[in-house]
Amino acid sequence: MAYDVVVIGSGPGGYVCAIKAAQLGLKVAVVEKNATFGGTCLNIGCIPSKALLHASEMLAEAQHSFDALGVEVGTPKMNLKKMMAHKDATVAANVNGVSFLFKKNKIDSFQGTGKVLGAGKVGVTGVDGKTQEIETKNIVIATGSDVAGIPGVDVAFDEKVIISSTGGLSLEKVPAHLVVVGGGVIGLELGSVWARLGAKVTVVEYLDTILGGMDGDVAKQFQRMLAKQGFEFKLGSKVTGVAKAKKGATVTFEPVKGGAAETIEADVVLVATGRRPYTDGLGLKEAGVEMDERGRIKTDGHLRTNVAGIYAIGDVVVGPMLAHKAEDEGVAVAEIIAGQAGHVNYDVIPGVVYTSPEVASVGKTEEELKKAGIAYKAGKFPFTANGRARAMLHTDGFVKVLADKDSDKVLGVHIVGFGAGEMIHEAAVLMEFGGSSEDLGRTCHAHPTMSEAVKEAALATFFKPIHM
Ligand code: FAD
């Protein structure tokens, strides 16, 4: 049977693309090499990490906040096995949900490794080694990404002592000392999980800041908050070795600016230095599909590769490696294939760090605006001046709104604080519609909510906030 679309990979890019294409009346198949659908995000990424982040955050709340709220529960205790069972059940519910949606939308699935045999032809090698060919009018490559190591350093992952994020989601006991190589989102999220469960966490980061690329104000404040939670930071440090020791492992690093090397001991080392696009065994070279210097598949503004009928989306192409970016590209490409006008607005893709407190951001940072020479106004409002934040004992953090100096159009919003990951979406919607900070500051916000801080930060860009 010939298909309209064969999608290789069932992560948030691939599965969303398949469902949307089927909803648009196309005949769709998905090829997935894993035993379950959902890709990195549902199996070993967004979903399991958030289950552990939530559970460990509840423990920390019970330990540190309940008493002040007048809630007495005795001494809260961690049950790691139960926490992991909750994580596994959450993953199962999500991956089974994708299976259900495939059936509901009459999407065929092939379990095996997909290979592009040329435009219109996909080969599938099953787990039993048997191969088959599928004919299709269009191919969508959505093969995602894989763990990247440390450039120039030999890292022997065993997922017990020297671990990637995947091992970091399944440790059997809390390490006394966890060294995290990489102060990006994944390292800080997983570091937070294990810190709350009792580990001492040291983060070794190459840059002079954590969360490289985030607004500098936010990153600085966030680092102070994590330091208060017990995190230790070795910034501006280049890791030159990660080695297994008799007990645990060692991490050796030296100052980026030059100086003496230092070696620290760890029970577990989490290497969270980023991810690489995954195209292994896809046959792209033979099929003539062009890649860039970083191994990503090259696409045009319509997610088309240089070979007619072959598209690529998600982590395997340029852009932020985020599930919702992959999903939006999945929808866009399905619409394009169906003859509609699919489109992704790359200027308004929110990014969230699901720590406690959360960090969320959309649009340009202050540093980016300065670099681009754009005249802007900044308005800031702290949660210490927000009634709801006080009532919930969540007064850490602030909202920052950046707007164009002349037109008042909102160019970026950055939040560090409880619930930032939910609040950021009012800014995203506003920006999608080209709204101004006055639009935001004059929009009635329910009281008392954390979101009032967003309104007040907007007011601060063109006049004065009321509560400060
Ligand atoms: P993937 O999800 O990587 O899926 C690709 C799929 O393709 C996989 O199932 C793979 O098995 C399959 N595949 C690969 N090659 C073949 C082949 N040849 N044949 C058949 N199948 C193949 N993003 C967020 O937005 N929010 C978060 O909170 C978040 N948390 C994260 C936490 C962790 C620990 C990690 C590791 C990542 C996290 N991410 C998060 C990133 C997010 O997981 C990715 O951006 C997202 O999964 C990318 O989706 P994708 O569809 O491009 O690829």
From TrEMBL:
PROSITE patterns given in the database record: PYRIDINE_REDOX_1 (PS00076)
EC assignment: 1.8.1.4
A molecular-function term among this protein's GO annotations: dihydrolipoyl dehydrogenase (NADH) activity
Keywords assigned by UniProt, alphabetized: Disulfide bond, FAD, Flavoprotein, NAD, Oxidoreductase, Redox-active center
Residue ranges occupied by any Pyridine nucleotide-disulphide oxidoreductase dimerisation domain in the UniProt entry: 349-458
Catalytic activity, reaction form: N(6)-[(R)-dihydrolipoyl]-L-lysyl-[protein] + NAD(+) = N(6)-[(R)-lipoyl]-L-lysyl-[protein] + NADH + H(+)
Cofactor note: Binds 1 FAD per subunit.
Cofactor: FAD
EC primary class: oxidoreductase
Domain called FAD/NAD(P)-binding: residue spans: 3-330
Entry-linked Pfam families: Pyr_redox_2, Pyr_redox_dim
Domain of life of the native organism: Bacteria
InterPro entries: Class-I_Pyr_Nuc-Dis_Oxidored (IPR050151), FAD/NAD-bd_sf (IPR036188), FAD/NAD-binding_dom (IPR023753), FAD/NAD-linked_Rdtase_dimer_sf (IPR016156), Lipoamide_DH (IPR006258), Pyr_nuc-diS_OxRdtase (IPR001100), Pyr_nucl-diS_OxRdtase_dimer (IPR004099), Pyr_OxRdtase_I_AS (IPR012999)
Record family assignment: Belongs to the class-I pyridine nucleotide-disulfide oxidoreductase family.
Leftover remarks: The active site is a redox-active disulfide bond.
NCBIfam families linked: lipoamide_DH
Stated name of the protein: Dihydrolipoyl dehydrogenase
